[in-house]
Amino acid sequence: MSNRVLVSMQEGMAEPEWFNKILAYEQTVLEKLGYDNEEISILFCDDEFIHQLNKEYRDIDSPTDVLSFENGMEYTDDEGTWYSAGDIIISLDTLPKNADYFGVSPNEELKRLLIHGTLHLNGMDHGEAHVEPGVEPEDEMLKLQEKVLKELADITIIG
Q1: Which residues contact 41 (CB under 8 A, 6 or more apart)?
Q2: H helices of 74-155, where?
Q3: pTM for this structure?
Q4: Fewest 10 Å CB contacts: which of 5, 10, 44, 80?
């Protein structure tokens, strides 16, 4: 099984100390979900940057935690045929706010956002349903998200 994951930071932002652990975690997520020959990019940014994207592409005039932009194109290179799933954008300003809201560690919340974005890039949607603190999700995507999160509970990105 082989996947490509490109991880980057918004221009002008310093890489967090845990930045180099994202690639391995995302590879594990893709493998756990059974995705193969996918290419995904992950960009970490601040609230101002994600606010602008949210406003431009979703007509929502506020920052958010994670955005996913599906590509869905295939291309072939010397290594084979790849499915360019798309881009995941995560706000590092909103991450700790979400962790506080859900009563979880920033580590758990970051892992949840990465799984969430990956599922969106692969055609899943949760409509108006959202994860609520202390409430088991009923939506298929959110159930799968929480299942995978539990299965990867022993992985630490943010120590």
Answers
A1: 5, 6, 7, 8, 86, 87, 88
A2: 94-102, 106-121, 140-151
A3: 0.92
A4: 80
Name the token pair of 10: 């918004």
In eight-state DSSP terms, residue 71 is E
Pairing status of strand 66-77 against strand 80-91: antiparallel
Structure tokens at 152: 């990867």
The model's pLDDT over 28-38, given as tens digits with 9 standing for 90+, comes to: 999 999 999 99
Interatomic CA distance for residues 37 and 74, integer angstroms: 10
Dihedral (CA of 114, 116, 120, 123) sign: positive
Alpha-carbon separation of residue 25 from 86, 112, 157 (angstroms):
17, 11, 8
Cβ neighbourhood burial of 158 (10 Å; 0-12, 13-18, 19+): middle
Element (H, E) at 84: strand 80-91
List beta partners, residue 91.
45
What H or E segment, with its residue span, contains residue 55?
Answer: helix 47-58
